[in-house]
Specification:
The protein is mainly beta. The chain has a domain of 47 residues. Helix content is 0%, strand content 35%. The protein contains no helices and 6 strands. Strands 3-4-5-6 form a 4-stranded antiparallel beta sheet, with no helix packed on it. A hairpin with a 3-residue loop joins β3 and β4. The N and C termini lie far apart (41 Å). The chain binds zinc ion. The site of zinc ion has 8 residues, from loops.
Length: 68
């Protein structure tokens, strides 16, 4: 039996339910998606507190969320 890997970086995947970097409320889906070379930038906008931040998924390695 093979085990599923923990890495989930299939290109085209859109992250959902990302916790707000400020208040922690889950955000259903990113406000804006900007594909780049080997990575994709996601702009999140929190409906609870209005905080906006960017997260970048890098497909060569692992997804690295960056809180601005
Ligand atoms: Zn928030």
């Amino acid at each position: 039996m093979t085990q599923a890997t923990m890495v989930n970086t299939h290109s085209g995947d859109i992250p959902t339910q990302n916790p707000c970097a400020q208040c922690g409320a889950p955000i259903a889906q990113p406000d804006w998606i900007e594909p780049g070379e080997g990575r994709v930038s996601y702009l999140w906008s929190c409906p609870a507190c209005g905080y906006r931040f960017e997260a970048i998924a890098i497909y060569d390695e692992a997804a690295i969320p960056l809180a601005a």
